[in-house]
Amino acid sequence: MPSIAYRLTSLFRRFSDRALGIRDIRKQLYELRWHIGQATLKDILSQTRYQEPKRLLRHGYKVFSQEDEDGIIAEIFNRIGTETKQFVEIGVENGWECNTCTLLYHGWKGVWFEGSSSAVASIKDKFSDRISNGQLEANQKFVTRDFSAELSARWPSLKGLDLFSIDIDGNDYDIIEALQGKLQARLIIVEYNPKLRPPIDWHMPYRADHVWDGTDWYSASLTAWTRLLSDKGYSLVGCNITGNNAFFVRSDLASGKLLSFEAQRESPYRGGRSPHWIKIKNRLHHSVERVKEASR
Question: What pLDDT, on the 0 to 100 scale, is given for residue 235?
Answer without folding.
Answer: 96
